[in-house]
Design a protein that fits this description.
The protein has about 150 residues and is α+β, with helices and mostly antiparallel strands. The protein has five helices and seven strands, in the order βαααβββαβαββ. It has a seven-stranded mixed sheet with strand order 1-2-3-4-5-7-6, sandwiched between helices. Strand 2 and strand 3 form a beta hairpin. The longest helix is centred in the middle third of the chain and has 15 residues. The two termini are about 20 Å apart.
């Protein structure tokens, strides 16, 4: 069972470590390591923004297992990203976390459409997004990467 809560400034180290983990960086559109200063500035902006929602996913023992972020892109539209702690991958946390946070954002925050860009080579992410109810809409290029545009149905 996965639960989620809003991220706080106290999550800075956890999010920093997740962001700079090798496999996470490989699957990101910006794969360079992030400095502590840039991360700190980024997190402050995200937490204080009305156009971003950052959630920490946790397991049944309240152990943090990953993060989900929604960036509002227009009236009722948001782009979603997710990463799961390297020690908790393959345990269904990603698809369950996506399902729960998307449901919350649609029902409580009244989002009309949630979309993600997922690298085609990132097979695990493609599977978890599909399992969570996302559908492939089309293939796109993002920063020279072949990707799927996936939309929450």
């Amino acid at each position: 069972m996965v639960t989620f809560r809003e991220a706080t400034i106290d999550d800075m180290r956890l999010l920093f470590d997740w962001r700079n983990e090798q496999e996470t960086r490989k699957n990101a559109f910006n794969s360079s390591a992030l400095s502590w200063k840039r991360h700190s500035d980024w997190l402050q902006r995200r937490i204080n923004s009305f156009n971003s929602y950052l959630f920490i996913l946790a397991d049944y023992q309240s152990t943090p297992v990953g993060q989900v972020r929604f960036d509002i892109k227009g009236d009722g539209f948001a782009e979603i990203t997710i990463s799961i702690d390297v020690n908790h991958r393959g345990k269904n946390y990603a698809s369950e976390g996506l399902t729960k946070t998307c449901s919350y954002m649609k029902n409580v925050k009244k989002l009309k459409k949630i979309f993600a860009y997922v690298k085609k080579e990132n097979v695990a992410s493609c599977k978890c997004f599909r399992k969570a109810g996302f559908e492939n809409v089309r293939e796109v290029k993002i920063k020279s990467f072949d990707c799927y545009l996936m939309v929450y149905a």
